[in-house]
Amino acid sequence: MTGITTRPPSRPAELAHAAALTEADVDALAAYLKARLDEVRDRNDYLSDEWRTAMSLSLVVSTQADRVRDTFTGDSPELLLARRRQWNELVWLVRPWEYGAAAGYDTTRWCHLIHADAADAARAAAYRRSCL
Question: Which of 54, 69, 103, 125 could pair with 40 in a Cys bridge, judged by C-beta atoms 3.0 to 4.6 Å apart?
């Protein structure tokens, strides 16, 4: 065999602030949760408590994903703060899958955001350096 090497598939950059968040991130996270909740509904009898619980959570995921998507109408400071806040609410819903490295969980993109944009992150980093 020749010495052919393949490059690993490229991974998206780690999500560092709300301005770097994309609608594709929102769609991927919502689809991940929807698939798992659909499995629960499919395994349980229609109108059972388990079916109703999964259905309720599906509605919460859909509504919260829509709230995040609503913040993509611009990049004003107010919208970036709203995007960060709404995204963090959505991320809380997927957190149980983070533990134990569940298959398909995107550890680089589905993370809690602290900063609104790169300038906000740079200011925070400069402050941390000044405290050393």
Answer: 54
pLDDT in tens, 35-65: 999 999 999 999 999 999 999 999 999 999 9
Domain encompassing residue 86: 18-130
Domain assignment present for residue 33? The answer is: yes
Structural domains counted in the chain: 1
* CA dist., res. 34 & res. 86, Å (int): 18
pTM of the model as a whole: 0.84
Whether residue 103 is contained in a domain is answered as yes
